[in-house]
């Protein structure tokens, strides 16, 4: 048995506390799996006096994170503080002094992954971040390693548990967004300030990380088209339900038809109830990966929470520990493909549109003409109600988002269209 | 760029042909991901003249596999012949001469994994075998690496596409086993001799591999309790359907309640239609992993087929190629926990039992008494029909399989029980 590998933990909140607990409870298993004991030698926190979920020897606590990450005896630095600073500086300092790094920090990797990955490469340091996307679900390692011999075409997933909980609640109980959000907050699934979740920032960061790995290119949070779920109404949900669809907040990373660029976007979309993602309930996450040879794969599990996220962190700790013993490191960031990230307008999707129209002869012909002018082909159309209540409900075939948006704009300008009552993208229903 | 890594392929059937195609079609991507070109330098086949799915330079073909695997210039040997011999001897020879090995051979690993893993260790050789279980689905790497910091409690999965296709067809169309099997054969989902699939041998080999990895113990095919699906009738399927269940052939690897042993079994079982595995249709595979911290994870995808299996093989080729360049190797077999594999009688499950009984007062009391004597507690019971057609349908709570079997035996001996009309285990429905 080799000498102990020493771990410094940055942050001791919901995830950090579970990391501490698991390192202790699984001590002998971890030692057997790594080939050396893992020893927690320091925990950097802002408030040492604060009550925590895990019992921690007070002697391990420190407020001096800078010194901890460069301590001579530390082998592995585990960062679960989150946010950009001081996490970035601490990770860079750790790598510069030869430590291996495990992080769960999606915001940092999505905003400034380039800096972090470059530092890893320059310092020959290991950088593992499985916990940054989809919590306990093994997703980055399979994408980065198991699928390294395949060509990923599309990643389509539910990667934010809070919004999935809210949308699932709206779907199952008919609740409004506000009521569902309040319930999610009461149950601890949503934060007091839910902006990062409900506006799609969290999902967008994860989408950037997923896209970068899946397409071997550099993708940042700023490249991601992002729409949240705050404007989804109970009526939208009911209308989707009536048509056999459910509304989910999706993260979609897709190669363009010519293979030369990728689109990365987060927005609510209707998916058919028969689609496996439709059955993802409550705060669960699930990610579909479509690859040329492997076909469609799905990964499902708990996307957040202390213990599930800590499970992913521990898996990474074991990996970097094994690498240190073998004097090697895991795969570096791979961005060789360097695909262009195209704007939302170039992404291809489908659209569900409800129009309040005057019930007059020729209305459908004139509406259809607008779609045709924008080269958007209509898959289904049906008329509901009569007279003043007449509504046209259309679902398009695949078209560029720019063409779809332009079509909607033109529809709004038509005198026979009283209002565009609803517009929602449709995904996961690949009728060509 | 480093000098090319040279690959020898053993076998060029359904999977091998796709490996050849993908190595050619993805040449530049693979080189970029590995950091060196991958070059196919030889393909061992039995019949060089045979028509194949992939175009292969005839100069690469050889019938002399023994010489190919020890050729000085070969770095990586990819074995997709299947079966025990000559695959085993060739893999051992390859390792002895310093090659890295990628194999899809579940039968060999399940029957004699000890020999193969020992040879890998003694020769310092890499051994990757993702394709041996669940085709394209990344499963072994996540279990072996991503979950290395967690404690797996149970693995529950559909790992044989042929039997899932047959059972799904029986469920959706009411077909008999024989008719569904014939359809599967006509569509190429089942072989002319379907024994390995329908008798559960294929699933048992995969269960042994999964259990060994998940529980860090040595598990062989002989340790696996195995029952096939040949005796499932259309009536069984219909009766399960009426109760809101579906019959699936499951591979179950579960830690005992005291954590000291594992049970590994393959048998048909009823699962509730609300269970995610119930929605796995046609020839798809899906595996549930339950771990202490991660909770429930599911992996879903194509479990067989040339291209999907080749995707997993290529992922492993990239991994061993990277390892060779970095002069390191992947994680060794981990059997430190050395858990006892307990016999089926010690496995804990639930049972659905239909009894043809005489419709007399006191029947239920006497039947219930038999369950109680064997310490098996009844969850639900209902009586169907009256008079000569009376049937008692019972579902038990969790009990050892030995107690359940003994209960059934005692029921068969009762004068008031005309026949035990149906017995089926129930899984995936954890009412305690």
Automatic annotation (TrEMBL), chains A, B:
InterPro entries: ACT-like_dom_sf, ACT_dom, Asp/hSer_DH_NAD-bd, HDH, HDH_cat, HDH_CS, NAD(P)-bd_dom_sf. The keyword RNA-binding does not apply. It catalyses: L-homoserine + NADP(+) = L-aspartate 4-semialdehyde + NADPH + H(+); L-homoserine + NAD(+) = L-aspartate 4-semialdehyde + NADH + H(+). Pfam families: ACT, Homoserine_dh, NAD_binding_3. Pathway: Amino-acid biosynthesis; L-methionine biosynthesis via de novo pathway; L-homoserine from L-aspartate: step 3/3; Amino-acid biosynthesis; L-threonine biosynthesis; L-threonine from L-aspartate: step 3/5. Its cofactor is a metal cation. Its EC number is 1.1.1.3. Keywords: Amino-acid biosynthesis, Methionine biosynthesis, NADP, Oxidoreductase, Sodium, Threonine biosynthesis. It comes from the Bacteria. Residues 352-425 form the ACT domain. PANTHER family: HOMOSERINE DEHYDROGENASE. Belongs to the homoserine dehydrogenase family. This is Homoserine dehydrogenase. The lineage of its organism: Bacteria, Bacillati, Actinomycetota, Actinomycetes, Streptosporangiales.
